[in-house]
Design a protein that fits this description.
The structure is a single chain. By secondary structure, the chain is mainly alpha-helical. It contains ten helices and no strands. Helix 4 crosses helix 6, helix 4 packs parallel to helix 7 and helix 5 packs across helix 6. The longest helix has 21 residues. It is globular.
């Protein structure tokens, strides 16, 4: 039996994605290398290219998977404020996805899977403000998104460690969102 690495692997696509997420979480997306990921997966250096073509393809797959998970996380929230809490929770639970998703220069903008996942996540975000009066809804949506995304980004980068002290970030976010959207704004179909 040869000691040469072969192309065959049980689920190479998932193994490469998992390894890539580890790299992004610890070292950022700039540290990704298909050759290094192939080494980690124990396959030939050309094997990951079969699934992703190149580094951009891999980052596109990470973003598409992230947007799908993100849409799932947001979809069942009963209020705008709770969508914000789930936004922050998603960032905490999926920091590597979060780092890649909102960096469009890293992915292929015309990828069908990415476009579908982004559209679904966008629909979930917009549904959070759909119960607001039409006048000002867009600006309220921008404010809510800015609050959630800004809070999540500051949290992941460690910039809220001091201000949060030992408090639960989700509870702090819930309080902040309550200052902006006092009644929580129920989403259509929620009770």
């Amino acid at each position: 039996m040869s000691s040469e690495r072969t192309y065959h692997h049980g689920d190479l696509r998932r193994a490469v994605l998992a390894a890539a997420l580890d790299v992004v979480e610890t070292d950022g997306p700039g540290a990704l290398s298909l050759r290094d990921l192939a080494r980690r997966a124990g396959v030939s250096h050309a094997a990951p290219a079969h699934h992703f073509k190149d580094r951009t393809g891999l980052l596109t797959a990470i973003a598409a998977e992230g947007y799908t998970l993100f849409a799932d996380a947001l979809s069942e929230a009963p209020t705008l404020n709770e969508r914000g809490v789930r936004y922050v929770r998603f960032a905490r639970e999926h920091p590597a996805h979060f780092q890649v998703m909102f960096r469009p220069e890293l992915h292929r903008p015309d990828d069908p899977e990415l476009l579908a996942a982004k559209a679904r996540a966008g629909d979930s975000l917009r549904a959070g403000v759909s119960a607001l009066p039409a006048e000002g809804r867009t600006d309220a949506g921008i404010a809510a998104w800015s609050l959630a995304h800004g809070f999540a980004t500051l949290l992941l980068s460690g910039n809220l460690t001091g201000p949060l002290e030992a408090r639960d970030p989700e509870e702090v976010f819930r309080s902040l969102a309550g200052m902006l959207f006092a009644d929580g704004v129920r989403t259509p179909g929620s009770s």
